[in-house]
Design brief:
The chain has 638 residues and is an alpha+beta fold. The protein is built from 22 helices and 15 strands.
Length: 638
């Protein structure tokens, strides 16, 4: 493609914004280059170029900020889990949890309260960012205020404006403390040990704010770690007290010490797994080794439903025959279960070990899900940019693709996929579309391609191997997606397309062709199949974006043309005369001035080259059209 030098108006427009990106400037700073250019009387083209560069730079900054935020969240969870494994000072661990929760959620204040079973209320234990003494000394009765309601119901509560929220039981003491601190938006999640709530973890802002679901789940994860830290500290305290009270029973003391060492070993192993990015099966293997038994992870479809529900409700591992089952859950969502086989005589410490392993498993699953969702979003955003002709800097496009293990310089096929869910209600259709999107994204990731949800279906961009065809890829993708979603999925494919990074609009044109092929399949009653324009015969000439007349002629009568060229025969002219004479061998021999047996022999040879169905109505229509195009095009197609 011919390369043009940059226009003077756009030359260097990106430089000030790259500098801002490099030094991590605030979003407001990106307005300065544009304002300065206008103040200096720059041309409209120069100002427009700076505006375009500003939008691109802000998009890159937002992407970078999102990645930093997700990495910070995962790092904080792993660091907190490591602190828990090496628990020495409960106050330090709780303070670290509150600090990290405040930092990651970006709130003005974070604090933690604990229930007082003697007084029947809940009191402030740790604060971060608080400036009001009265607030730091608050005590809330059960059911009073947002925190008292969380402590009483064991459910998270959130409000965008506490002072105006009538759902909570306001008291003069609580409202005065909140007003002293200047808090407006408050999120509170319970600290639970099994079915018992031992306190509440809060994040609060001094302005109106809506907390997102991911932020509620993240605070819930920190609350689970805080509850585990308190539980571990209590366990260590109880152990030390038991050891002090059993000085006369040396054997019991040795046994108890062994239990503690084993529990500490389990904590260290699980923390190590978290820090090095291990998986759920690694956790199961580690616990199997420590407990000298077989432990495996079961997903929600294969786990014993009744035992899992009891474990989830009670917050403890439960016995089921000869086995033990510990539910793996987070934020009210059931993710699976750890099942310990053939070990009915499980002591309390080993039971607690199994429960801790289930909690670590839930953290790993949430972390992996968060990373997967982030990659899905990035993969879909890049494909959306290609389809919408945004971000036309080839270098940036290639760099974004390389981070996803995709190569935009390779030849690709664009595929449009759509579910066939006739008669399903809206909820079923939505669930099926989510399965389709998930399956398409997985297929794209394994094939070094891209996927995005679009127009009620899914669009994929997959590299085309040298030995593959667009038709074959479409059929394979339709089969894979149908199997993954348990629904019929129709897939239309474009012709191969290259130079996606440098050709603006190439992906959009290919996507339009893929949609035409998809619509043609459905109109022809072939829903649930996959095809490209080349599969539709002469209809493919209408469906394809580029009219590949030569390819159509070659696919239809190419064998006959090649036979004539190699052997000097006259089969093409015989075939043309045969159709011109109404498919009558007798009239054909007169038109060609040959014997009727010669005509019969030539037609037999043509049948062997074109296949036994060459005289079926649909085939004859395509063959006659190919003969006409071959004759009109002349040597250009030969």
């Amino acid at each position: 493609m011919e390369q043009h030098p940059p226009h003077p108006a756009t030359d260097g427009a990106q430089a000030p914004f790259l500098e801002l990106l490099a030094r991590g400037a605030s979003a407001d700073a990106y307005e300065q280059p544009v304002l300065l250019a206008r103040a200096e009387g720059a041309t409209p083209a120069r100002v427009a170029a700076l505006e375009d560069a500003k939008r691109l730079a802000l998009a890159v900054r937002e992407e970078m900020e999102g990645r930093r935020r997700r990495e910070a969240e995962l790092s904080a969870l792993f660091e907190t889990a490591h602190d828990l494994a090496g628990l020495r000072d409960l106050d330090a661990v709780l303070q670290a949890i509150v600090q990290r929760a405040r930092s990651l959620l970006g709130t003005d204040v974070a604090y933690l309260t604990l229930n007082d079973p003697v007084r029947g209320d809940t009191y402030m234990r740790v604060t971060e960012g608080s400036v009001a003494a009265r607030f730091q000394q608050l005590r809330l009765g059960m059911g009073e205020g947002l925190g008292g309601l969380v402590a009483q119901t064991a459910r998270p509560y959130v409000t965008a404006n506490y002072g105006q929220d009538v759902r909570f039981q306001h008291t003069r003491t609580i409202d005065a403390g909140v007003q002293d601190e200047g808090l407006v938006a408050i999120l509170g999640v319970p600290l639970s040990l099994g079915p018992h709530v031992i306190g509440v973890l809060f994040a609060a802002d001094r302005r109106d704010r809506v907390f997102e679901r991911e932020q509620i789940a993240l605070l819930g994860s920190f609350a689970a770690l805080a509850a585990a830290a308190i539980d571990t500290a209590n366990l260590l305290t109880e152990t030390r007290e038991a050891l002090a009270g059993l000085e006369r029973a040396n054997e019991i003391i040795r046994d108890r010490s062994g239990v503690i060492e084993r529990a500490s070993d389990v904590h260290d192993r699980l923390a190590e797994l978290v820090l090095r990015g291990g998986g759920v099966h690694d956790v199961a293997a580690a616990v199997s080794q420590v407990l000298d038994s077989t432990v495996h992870f079961a997903d929600t479809d294969t786990a014993p439903a009744e035992a899992v529900e009891v474990s989830r409700t009670e917050g403890h591992a439960v016995r089921r025959g000869e086995d033990w089952v510990a539910a793996v859950a987070a934020g009210g969502e059931l993710l699976g279960a750890l099942v310990l086989r053939g070990h009915p005589g499980l002591d309390p410490v080993d039971q607690r070990t199994l429960e801790r392993a289930a909690m670590v498993t839930s953290l790993l699953l949430l972390a992996r899900r968060s990373a997967s969702e982030a990659e899905q979003r990035v993969r879909g955003e890049l494909l959306d940019d290609l389809l919408d002709a945004r971000d036309r800097d080839p270098r940036l496009l290639r760099e974004r693709a390389a981070r996803l293990h995709a190569d935009l310089d390779a030849t690709h096929v664009v595929l449009a996929a759509r579910l066939e869910t006739a008669g399903a209600d809206a909820e079923q259709v939505a669930a099926a579309r989510r399965r389709l999107w998930s399956a398409a994204d997985h297929l794209a990731a394994t094939r070094h391609g891209l996927a995005a949800a679009r127009d009620g279906g899914t669009v994929l961009l997959l590299p085309l191997r040298a030995d593959a065809t667009a038709s074959g890829v479409a059929a394979h993708v339709a089969k894979r997606l149908s199997a993954a979603t348990h629904e019929r999925v129709t897939v239309g494919a474009s012709a191969p397309v290259a130079d996606l990074a440098t050709r603006a609009g190439a992906a959009a044109v290919a996507y339009a062709e893929a949609q035409r092929c998809l619509d043609a399949l459905r109109l022809l009653g072939r829903a649930g199949e996959g095809a490209a324009a080349e599969d539709f015969g002469f209809l493919g000439l209408l469906l394809a974006d580029s009219r590949d007349i030569g390819g159509f002629v070659t696919r239809t009568i190419g064998e006959v043309v090649t036979y004539d060229e190699r052997r000097g025969t006259d089969l093409v002219r015989t075939l043309d005369a045969y159709f011109a004479c109404g498919m009558s061998p007798a009239r054909t021999k007169d038109a060609l001035h040959v014997h009727v047996n010669t005509v019969a022999q030539r037609l037999e040879r043509i049948g062997r080259l074109l296949g036994p169905d060459w005289q079926e109505p649909a085939r004859t229509l395509e063959i006659q059209l190919a003969l006409r195009l071959h004759r009109l095009a002349g040597p250009a197609l030969r």
